[in-house]
Task: structure prediction
Amino acid sequence: MDQSGFHGDRQALLVTLNDLVSNVREFVSVSDVDKLIGVARTWKELEDGLTKLLKGDPLLVSKIEKFKNTAQYEQLAHQLFLIKWQQSKDIQKLSKLVTDTRNSTVPINLPNTVKNVRCVGGESFEIESNYHRVWFYDSKFSVEARFTPGEVFLNFFQNYVDAWKAAPFGRYYINTVFVATITTVLEVIIAAMAAFAFAKLDFFGRDFLFTLYLATMMVPGEVLLVPNYITLTKFGWIDTYYALIVPWVVQVFAIFLMRQHFKTLPDELFDAAKIDGASKWRFLWTVVLPLSKPVVITSALLKFVGSWNAFLWVLIVTKSPEMRTLPVGLQTFSSEVGTLYNQLMAASTFSMLPVILLFLFTQRYFIRGIARTGLK
Result:
């Protein structure tokens, strides 16, 4: 076959390059042009691509029409494609051609750590290191990565850098720390006062009211989303810190946890404090809470982690990125077209790191607090 008969523009390769293999059943390797591999999936696209490729040579086009729907057609298509590639030496223009490829084949830039492309069940083709790396992502191919110590060091933290730049994570961190801290402090104060009242004070309906509080724990949180949202809308608190903090400063489980521990403290301490002239308020803060440090820290830790990981409520009541927290910020890496798992995992790592460190420093109190609950 005379190679001089090919007068088509290189752009005419687009369709053929975009989809060659599922129907043609051939892997075409290119030795001289950055080791690119092209594939085609439909006879229609192959026919259109070859027609454009051979434009200006009606005789050759008629030959292809004669072989259509025959085994020779497949072989001829393979030969034409291979010859056209061998004629092409311009790396930059071919790279531009590849990045413009449309339809189902997705062009991606390979990282520096990737050194070759492996054809599944076939030959492994080296990629020239001095050229811009482009590869067609297809289920027929896999990438084999070979690393050098220098490349590993240079690229080790790149996903963390890219993830941090992809969204305003500095602002998300500030919001998350602020909301979690304020919510935790208020919850501990309110829970301590309520637990002390239920454990040490005697008033009408105390046990019934406490049982009523416990019953609210059986109500799923999702049931309260709409009523709480309507209430906050009437207050004008949507997209404010009030919406993120106020609905969650009371936690029945924390009241229950502290109350069970406060009941284990001997009543003689309260009597001695009254003899010394201490008020109930002073007795709570100077005697009860210091003796209940493990339980208080356990309640605070549970609340802090819950507030730090809150997603659904924050997503509902916030509209602007300036008010969002880290869990909602992780949504940046997921969209209708796919998920950037490498950056999502990196962002998840530095999002949960503070909570892990907090638990490591407070785990002894956490275990001690759970162990002391309900001894009486």
